[in-house]
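FORM 7B - TANDEM STRUCTURE REPORT

SECTION 1: FIRST PROTEIN
SEQUENCE AND TOKENS:
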Amino acid sequence: MKKILLVEDDKSIITNLSEFLTNEGFSVRNAEGQTRALELIGEEEFDLVLLDVSLADGNGFAVCSAIKSEHNTPVIFLTASGDEYSTVTGFELGADDYISKPFRPRELVLRIKNILRLTGGSGTVTKLGDVLVDTVKGTASRNGSDLYLSALEYRLLLVFLNNRGAVLSRNQLLEAIWDIAGEFVNDNTLTVYIKRLREKIEEDPQNPKIIKTVRGLGYKVDL
């Protein structure tokens, strides 16, 4: 049974989400603030941490930083909808994913399972063609060189990684990345970001082997 630490100070979210995750087969511990969260992380081993930014004491950024400096535990941030600063900061601290509030519990469970599958329960390096994605450091490299992905490019790459083998429509991609950008991401802008990402991760961007176009449907990564 996978063990999750929920760090959240909204009592209703704690109660409802803990019950839902327990019914989904997870073991859940919770902490309302930074102090208690760090105590539990020091005392017990967790497979994943769900981490809110605003806490009863301290903040989620400090907790994430402490986790990533001492452990390889995956972290999913729970952020306010449209809070670009929190999302970008979370990725810079090594967060593995984020989900905006309000969220659908089943979508969160899917994200949790994807991250656990991707990291094997502990943050690690995943290979995608000749690209290595370090979900602990939040970096991607190719042939030993850092690709220096922007926050939105990294988020887009994570979406593909977490849905490996599935065809993602342009609308699905837009929904996944729109609230991390500094401005609204429309269909044309998505085309630009996919082009930029391909230029960084593909050996031949004109003939992509990693992010493949499925004509009339969307995009697919199945390496």
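SECTION 2: SECOND PROTEIN
SEQUENCE AND TOKENS:
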Amino acid sequence: MLGFRFSDYKKPDQTPFEALFDIFKQLLTYTNGDFDEAISWLTELDKEYQLTDKSYGIGDFINELKEKGYIKEDQPQGGGFIITAKTEQAIRQQALEKIFGKLKRSRQGNHATRFTGNGDEITPDTRPFQFGDDIGQISMLDSFRNAQINNGIGDFRMTEDDLEVYEKEHKTQTSTVLMIDISHSMILYGEDRITPAKNVAMALAELIRTRYPKDTLDILVFGDDAWEIEVKDLPYLQVGPYHTNTVAGLELAMDLLRRRKNANKQIFMITDGKPTCIKENGNYYKNSFGLDRKIFIKCLELAQSCRRLKIPITTFMVATDPYLQEFVHDFTEANNGKAYYTSLKGLGEFIFEDFERNKKRRV
């Protein structure tokens, strides 16, 4: 009897370079893209865990990085190496595989909605042929069956009334702004919150670039002020001695989305604290003690403005303080958006599940 024989899956053997490169890419994210620091850490790990042997050492790894175009000499700085754009993309791809690879593979499509119409992906559903339909959509099996039922087998013929065509999913395009908090609290109390945020941003950027190329993703960071960054800047992103100017971040996000022509727009905000800063007439108004009513009201006003513009805000709060959760609750209610109170470990899964869920409906 013919059949299939199943065995345990074994991951293909990695070359020494591939094994070290996987670790090296993670270290680059932690060291904000600093090659020298990442190599130093890799050397220490090699001493502790014997990652290399007499046939292949860290020096061989560095030479191979250079030969493969992952690093180049930093001549303007007087020697040493810096990573290249090829490495930046490799880091984004690793982040994508690490985060998105954990999600269920049942999600399909490209911003699929509940509406059918002219799109890119054929569904199993069929309907009667209409003038103007693409003949490539015709379901031959269903059409022949209809012809036999309607006209019989002896005098077989097929008419336009017998034709059925496959439906196609209507596709949406979405413009997303990802806001990342880089205030000082993102590294307070010995907890690194910025590295998971960077990993999520890199993975989301790579997902959109490869799977949803018609979408747009703008990334901004906010501390005392807010400014836009490029995807290639993400590995080098660092926390600064900043307060949290959520208002500036929202204003910039709204400005970026205003330039986008897509009907579907959304904001994802990763933060770990309350807003503590706004800018008035060129001066900073700051208050780190509790939730300042003046700043809080300004945040709610912007949340309501986004609601009127049909821009939902999804807040990912990587802190569990009750009064912070109360702020997020009021902010989310004003926007009619969503909020997740998540640990750093689950941040990526939450964001990707929400991003994929939004693609199945009009947001």
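SECTION 3: OBSERVATIONS ON SECOND PROTEIN
The chain has three domains: 16-83, 119-170, 174-358.
Residues 103-119 have pLDDT under 50 and may be disordered.

SECTION 4: SIGNATURE
Preparer initials: ____
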